[in-house]
């Protein structure tokens, strides 16, 4: 999540293991009935919405594969130590930094061409 609000919408794709990683990195959890808590079902995603200096996270998933996309559901992804799916950008960044090893990360610096893809 960028601290520069002029970048607009950014979409990142991943796999179920990436959802598990974000679950651990950010201490965020979700319910996904009829599946177990923190399920990473096919086609599911975490959506991060930034409004001002707040970050809201929602888990989206298909609840019934026999009827497909018409069973798309969402559930708030609640941050550990809170009772909500909304935290400040500063808290979000602190959670991420506290769980990272700097020697295992790359710094992403967007270039102008990245903004218009």
Structure description:
With 117 residues, the protein is α+β, with helices and mostly antiparallel strands. Helices cover 19% and strands 24% of the residues. It is built from two helices and six strands, in the order H-E-E-E-E-E-E-H. The protein has helices spanning 16-26, 89-99; strands at residues 28-29, 45-51, 54-62, 72-76, 78-79, 86-88. The strands form two sheets. Strands 2, 3, 4 and 6 form a four-stranded antiparallel β-sheet that branches. The protein has a two-stranded antiparallel ribbon with strand order 1-5. A hairpin with a 2-residue loop joins strand 2 and strand 3. The two termini are 18 Å apart.
Give a topology summary:
Layout lengths: L15 H11 L1 E2 L15 E7 L2 E9 L9 E5 L1 E2 L6 E3 H11 L18
Antiparallel strand pairs: 1-5, 2-3, 3-4, 3-6
């Amino acid at each position: 999540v960028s601290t520069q609000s002029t970048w607009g919408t950014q979409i990142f794709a991943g796999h179920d293991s990436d959802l598990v990683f974000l679950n651990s990195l950010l201490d965020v959890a979700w319910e996904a009935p009829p599946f177990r808590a923190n399920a990473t079902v096919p086609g599911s995603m975490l959506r991060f919405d930034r409004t001002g200096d707040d970050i809201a996270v929602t888990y989206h998933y298909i609840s019934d594969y026999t009827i497909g996309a018409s069973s798309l559901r969402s559930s708030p992804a609640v941050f550990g130590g809170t009772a909500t799916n909304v935290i400040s950008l500063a808290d979000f960044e602190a959670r991420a930094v506290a769980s990272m090893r700097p020697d295992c990360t790359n710094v992403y610096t967007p270039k102008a061409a990245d903004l218009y893809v």
